[in-house]
Amino acid sequence: MAFDLQPHLKGTLIELRPLTPDDWDELFAVASDSLIWEQHPEPDRYKEGVFKIFFKDALESGGAFVIIDRKTQRIIGSTRFYGYDPEKSEIEIGWTFLARKYWGGRYNAEMKQLLLNHAFKFVKSIVFFVGEDNVRSQKAMEKVGAIKVGRATRTYGNHPPATNLKYVIRKT
Question: Most exposed among 8, 14, 55, 132, judged by the fewest C-beta atoms under 10 Å?
Fold first, then answer.
């Protein structure tokens, strides 16, 4: 069975649907909040030119979603599956951001659970990379049960390579 990288997933609070070019305006409106990116290795992602690269890469990845608040039907962020490796039986979940109004656990937890439940139909391990200075996201990873297993260097946009912490959740 082939891994469906862009299913339409629904929870109680949110739904995830594949990102489309028509999502630009609404998603950039969320992403243009500079405080979302203050701890991220690419802290200027709130700028239109920088976010255009992120958005283009997300569309080209074939695994990107918009996160929709089911109550308001508004886009509140984005996430994606990335780097599927069938031989290692793993995939990355990442490139995630939420509007600040939705920080604090419930929305991120439900989003991660929807993605984990889907991915574990196809893989045994799910990997997450978090900037080493992004304490907020590190805490969020720990809340969803991810285990820190090491470090990795990642490049974001046109920024120099940055050290990230690597987290893993394994299928039980």
Answer: 8
In the prediction, which pLDDT does 83 show? Answer: 93
Residues 6+ apart with CB under 8 A from 151: 132, 163, 164, 165, 166
CA distances from 167 to 3, 31, 78, 107, 114 (A): 21, 24, 19, 20, 18
User: What pLDDT, in 10s, does the model give residues 11-63?
Assistant: 999 999 999 999 999 999 999 999 999 998 899 999 999 999 999 999 999 99
Question: Residue 46 has which token pair?
Answer: 């709130």
**Rounded distance between C-alpha atoms, residue 46 and residue 82, angstroms:** 22
**Residue 88: both structure tokens together:** 């290692």
Tokens representing 73 are 């039907």
DSSP secondary structure letter of residue 12 = S
Tell me: the pLDDT tens digits for 146-172? 999 999 998 887 778 889 999 999 998
Residue written as token pair 């991120």: 108
Cβ proximity of 34 and 149 under 8 Å = no
Q: Which residues pair with 160 in a beta bridge?
A: none
Terminal-residue alpha carbon distance, the chain = 20
